[in-house]
Design a protein that fits this description.
- This protein has about 475 residues and is α/β, with parallel strands linked by helices.
- The chain is globular.
- The chain folds into three domains: about 120 residues, Orthogonal Bundle (Fumarate Reductase Iron-sulfur Protein, Chain B, domain 2), CATH 1.10.1060.10; about 160 residues, FAD/NAD(P)-binding domain (3-Layer(bba) Sandwich); about 160 residues, 3-Layer(bba) Sandwich (FAD/NAD(P)-binding domain), CATH 3.50.50.60.
């Protein structure tokens, strides 16, 4: 008889919607052992192929069963530099858990019966962090003069830096902002990724010898040529995708219409929710509309409803999405959390105009209802506007969360760096090398927005190529 899944503990929706403390509490030791025991230790585990960095999931879960937690930590860290982070933010329901033998092939995401691989990974990662376990360098002194520049300190940059540093290569990370972490810090709210978890992983890299230089924008403060002139043997570009996309509808330039990038950065990076203790304000409305259906939209809506609660405003935050919930690219758990916390979902609704008051502030949004037509290039059914279905709703703050595009600060001043029509850097799919010899790239700057673990997978490939490259210099 199949064992029942262990439901991970969460804080109640009422109390958590009024603060920025972590929502998911994770497994206790007893719960982790109970969930690990559900794994049937497949002879050919499909879950491994579902992981972009190919963690030996079968082995680490088997080690949990034996209470060999240090061994499980070592197994995970062979492939994943940041288990505590990935255990929290990876879309496991579309990756390792979806590939679990307990999930039927035709299901779009992991079934409830799938083993909670990500929660077990988080359990091991947190336990390792509590014990102070860290990556140990395994270099053999082959590269005493080698130095690699990593541009960007998001998941791709940090992963690449860790892979190189653990092999004994000197790494300098250049970060344009004043704090390290990239999208992990400015994009993901602390109720999903606590800052002490992020800071521990960054501190681990520093203890490996990684040097981090903040407030340094490569493309402005320095060029790629100048990095090579300073003695760097190779360069990795983990620039991310930092330019927000907009809808191109009337009224987007009204006051209180934010990009999700700005809205989340003000709160997550600059602590606007603690104003005036911190000096970055953020406007907050009584009727908030978030446009989009991805994780960034869920994060924006969940941040917005917390700001309403903290400021004593009766919560009214809605997500407008032009398709149905089944087509939403956001994680299922984030959709559920948003709904539980009071976020309202206006599905099959497409905003077409923001209307402003006499002072230039948004005060209403006009939308049309949609129905789903034939599948488009993404495989999802195309939203088709229903004639005569236009409707208006109150809206005194809007957040547009429909995706990010490549930031051209560096590529715009480096014409020899080949990019595609979207502005993303083109790389050799086997080596991750760009059109410039000795320059490699990975993460969202290659192929557009992806997940944290996908960025790490690309970074690991690039790091291996960099090691091969500097070995031949």
């Amino acid at each position: 008889m199949r064992k029942e899944p262990v439901k991970v503990k969460e804080r109640d929706s009422v109390s958590r919607a009024g603060d920025f403390e972590e929502v998911v509490e994770g497994f206790s030791e007893a719960e982790a052992l109970q969930e690990a025991a559900r794994c049937i230790q497949c002879k050919e585990p499909k879950c491994v192929s579902g992981c972009p960095v190919e963690i030996d999931i079968k082995t680490f879960i088997g080690q949990i069963m034996k209470k060999d937690y240090d061994g499980a930590y070592a197994t995970i860290r062979q492939k994943n530099n940041f288990p505590s982070m990935c255990g929290r933010v990876c879309p496991a329901e579309y990756q390792c858990c979806k590939a679990c033998v307990f999930t039927k092939k035709e299901e779009p995401f992991a079934s409830r019966e799938a083993v909670g691989i990500h929660f077990l990974e988080r359990f091991i990662g947190d336990r390792g962090a509590e014990k102070g376990l860290r990556i140990e360098a395994s270099g053999d002194g082959r590269w005493p003069e080698c130095k690699v520049a990593v541009v960007g300190s998001g998941p791709a940059g940090l992963c690449c830096a860790g892979e190189l540093a653990r092999r004994g290569i000197k790494v300098v990370v250049f970060e344009g902002l004043h704090k390290t972490g990239g999208v992990l810090r400015y994009g993901i709210p602390p109720f999903r990724l606590p800052r002490n978890i992020l800071d521990f992983e960054i501190d681990s890299l520093k203890k490996l010898g990684v040097e981090i230089r903040a407030n340094t924008i490569i493309g402005r403060a320095k060029t790629i040529d100048e990095l090579f002139a300073e003695g760097f043997s190779a360069v990795f570009l983990g620039l991310g995708a930092g330019t927000p996309s907009f809808m191109g509808i009337p009224g987007e330039n009204l006051c209180n219409v934010y990009s999700a990038n700005e809205f989340l950065t003000r709160v997550n990076l600059m602590s606007a929710h603690k104003f005036p203790e911190y000096h970055t304000p953020v406007n907050i409305g009584r009727h908030i509309v978030v446009i989009g259906g991805g994780n960034t939209a869920m994060d924006s809506a969940r941040v917005a409803i917390r700001l309403q609660n903290i400021n004593g405003i009766k919560p009214d935050t809605a997500i407008y999405y032009r398709r149905s919930e089944a087509e939403m690219p956001a994680r299922r758990i984030e959709i559920e959390h948003a709904r539980d916390e009071g976020v309202r979902f206006e599905l099959l609704a497409r905003p077409e105009e923001f209307m402003g008051d006499e002072k230039g502030f948004v005060w209403k949004v006009r939308s049309s209802r949609c129905e789903l037509g034939e599948p488009d290039s993404t495989g999802r059914r195309r939203p088709v506007i229903i004639p005569g279905s236009s409707f208006e709703a109150d809206c005194d703050l809007a957040v547009i969360a429909i995706g990010l595009r490549a930031n051209k600060v560096l590529t715009g001043v480096t014409p020899e760096l080949a990019v595609d029509k979207y502005g993303d850097v083109i790389v050799d799919p086997k080596t991750a090398e760009t059109s410039i010899k000795g320059v490699f790239a990975g993460g969202d700057i290659v192929g557009g927005e992806g997940t944290v673990i996908e960025a790490m997978g690309m970074a690991k490939k690039a790091a291996a190529s960099i090691i091969d490259y500097v070995s031949r210099l």
